[in-house]
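Exercise 7b. Backbone tokens:
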């Protein structure tokens, strides 16, 4: 196709938009699936660290307390998780 001094034709722009749309339609579900898989694989580690913090609190204080009173460096991410049944 010939390009004049004014740029691309409408057909060429529509083809590019179509290609970008198809790529986005494929990439977004893949990214979402990988993100969910990463969060699911992180869960056992976080749970183990929480158990360790509870056990340390129990040993130091003689009883289990509320989670808010356990001062440790355990960071538990709470955003971005969804509840699913496996």
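Sequence design result:
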């Amino acid at each position: 196709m010939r390009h004049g001094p004014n740029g691309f034709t409408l057909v060429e722009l529509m083809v590019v938009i179509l290609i970008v749309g198809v790529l986005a339609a494929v990439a977004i579900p893949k990214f979402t699936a990988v993100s969910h898989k990463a969060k699911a694989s992180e869960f056992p580690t976080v749970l183990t660290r929480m158990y360790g913090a509870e056990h340390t609190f129990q040993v130091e204080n003689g009883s289990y307390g509320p989670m808010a009173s356990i001062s440790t460096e355990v960071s538990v991410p709470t955003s971005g998780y969804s509840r699913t049944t496996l």
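Instructor comment: The radius of gyration is 25 Å. The helical segments are 10-61.
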